Amino acid sequence: IAVAEPLLGEVGDDATVINEDKEAVAKAITAEAVKTAGYDDVAAAAEDGTAFVFMGHGTAHVAKVSYSQMQTTMETLGYTNVFVGTVEGEPEDTSCEAVIEKVKEAGFTKVVLRPLMVVAGDHANNDMAGDDEDSWLSRFKAADCFDSVDTQIAGLGEIGDIQQIYIDHAQAAIDSLNG
User: Fold this and answer.
1) Phi and psi for 177 in degrees, rounded to 5?
2) Which residues are catalytic?
3) Which residues pair with 150 in a beta bridge?
4) Mean pLDDT confidence for 15-32
5) Does any domain span residue 139?
6) d(CA 149, CA 49)
7) CATH number of domain containing 155
8) Which of 148, 136, 160 has its CA nearest to residue 54?
């Protein structure tokens, strides 16, 4: 039996530890979100005042640092208009309120919310894009500081480059069994 690496690779010790997998995921998900929103690239979206917010699940487990590492990866790639948040608000700087403040402070006036989850299920449809007042969509709108707040309901598993990472990780696990 061999266990493949997770999508984002090894966790690492702190928010500064990023790896090739996190960088590949960051590039793939941002490119897909930008394309779906109708922009040529992430810089054009930024010039238009558009921020992308990827909402993950969050966890109290030590692996929660992965979300901070993804934010660091976005910043390292120069994606000043891309933010990472979590439903569970763990780590704390990924809570909805914290992300709203970051987007507001950065001066973006348009927001696109998109799940940072392999499948766009209950969390994407309800916690992110639902009609309830506690959904991210409702909370971003209630902040009353954005001209528009839109959602993209699509899981990471729908993105070809993400699928390839899973395939590569599975192949590496198979190869490890063959010496």
Assistant:
1) -80, -20
2) 57
3) 112
4) 94
5) yes
6) 12
7) 3.40.50.1400
8) 136
